[in-house]
Design brief:
Order of helices and strands: HEEHHHHHHHHH
Strand content: under 5%
Largest sheet: 2 strands, antiparallel
Radius of gyration: 26 Å
Number of helices: 10
Number of strands: 2
Structural class: mainly alpha
Length: 325
């Protein structure tokens, strides 16, 4: 048996120095980019707080519980109850529709479909993320709404005795329910893409072991794939929720605004305005510091909500990494 005695290449001092310098440059650039992102988020939060505090101090209504929105004049009054309700309801409806559908699509692509079909199907789903939100808004208003309107009317007539499903006398394509459906289509690519990647990483030994024990294909998915991908699905849902909370143009086009002083209504077939749509619709009213501060205060609440949602998603991802390690 012979062994190779060829001399091993030796790195010169210049090569070592160049490599170390390159590592320092790359490491410094990566660190600087990370710090820049953190600084930008912090500066946005500081700006919102500085602009909102004076308006909140001059507010003569309870900001968290009042339904009045009259930030102008010498006695400004504004509260966020209606805005918070509309934002949360539309986002929950979006998740209730998009999460099961997205998980089902991800399972089909990774566990059932052949390779020649899986790649085009994944690409088509991903293309939904490239459609501008204003296109979704006009599509819902002109095309999808005419199919949802009779369904909403039937639900209101049949289950109107339930407060959440009562008919509020508003067109079905201008309600919180329909806005939530459009948001579901918009967040579907996010949930599907992340779930698909997680399901594709399930160890083959787990799946083969379940099948070897006599499990059917669905039982293998239920006992091996879904438990492994659960943290990823949760994080995908949270990221989709963050997108739904901040959506502006599509919701602004679809939702029917409520008159001032209108009675409170729990129905999802009622109109309203989310934080983002309220700010966008009334941008022309930013003519005084108090008015501007009132809308910035609403934006601060939306910023905090979105930050908390994304922070929760990050925590789930980190726990998933710790579990796999």
């Amino acid at each position: 048996m012979t062994t190779s005695t060829a001399p091993r290449p030796v790195r010169t001092t210049d090569q070592v120095r160049t490599g170390r310098v390159g590592d320092r440059i790359f490491g410094g650039a990566a660190t600087g980019a990370g710090l820049l992102v953190v600084a930008l988020v912090a500066l946005v939060g500081i700006f919102l707080v500085i602009q909102a505090v004076p308006a909140l101090l001059s507010n003569e209504a309870n900001f968290l519980t009042s339904r009045v929105w009259n930030p102008g004049g010498s006695h400004p009054e504004f509260g966020i109850v209606d805005l918070l309700w509309a934002t949360v309801v539309t986002s929950i409806i979006a998740l209730a529709v998009a999460v099961p559908l997205g998980v089902a699509v991800a399972l089909f692509i990774t566990q059932y479909s052949p390779t020649w079909l899986a790649r085009p199907a994944a690409a088509i789903i991903d293309l939904l993320a490239a459609v501008p939100s204003i296109v979704y808004g006009f599509w819902g208003l002109t095309i999808a709404g005419q199919y949802v309107d009779p369904v909403a009317s039937w639900i209101g007539d049949t289950f109107g005795w339930i407060p959440f499903l009562a008919d509020a006398g508003i067109s079905g394509k201008s309600t919180l329910f329909f806005a939530g459906l459009i948001l579901a289509v918009m967040v579907l690519p996010i949930i599907t893409a992340i779930s698909r990647e997680v399901f594709a990483q399930v160890p083959a030994a787990h799946k083969e072991g379940a099948l070897a024990l006599g499990a059917t294909h669905w039982e293998m998915i239920r006992t091996a794939v879904l438990p492994f991908g659960k943290p990823g699905v949760i994080s995908a849902s949270m990221l989709g929720l963050g997108r739904a909370l901040g959506e502006t143009l599509a919701v602004m086009i679809l939702l029917s605004g409520l008159n001032d002083g209108s009675p409170w209504n729990w129905s999802i077939f009622n109109g309203g305005a989310t934080f983002a749509s309220k700010i966008a619709l009334n941008a022309a009213e930013f003519d005084t510091p108090t008015k501007t501060g009132a809308y910035i205060s609403a934006g601060l609440v939306l910023f905090i909500l979105t930050f908390l949602v994304n922070a929760a998603a990050r925590i789930v991802i980190e726990r998933r990494k710790a579990f796999t390690e």
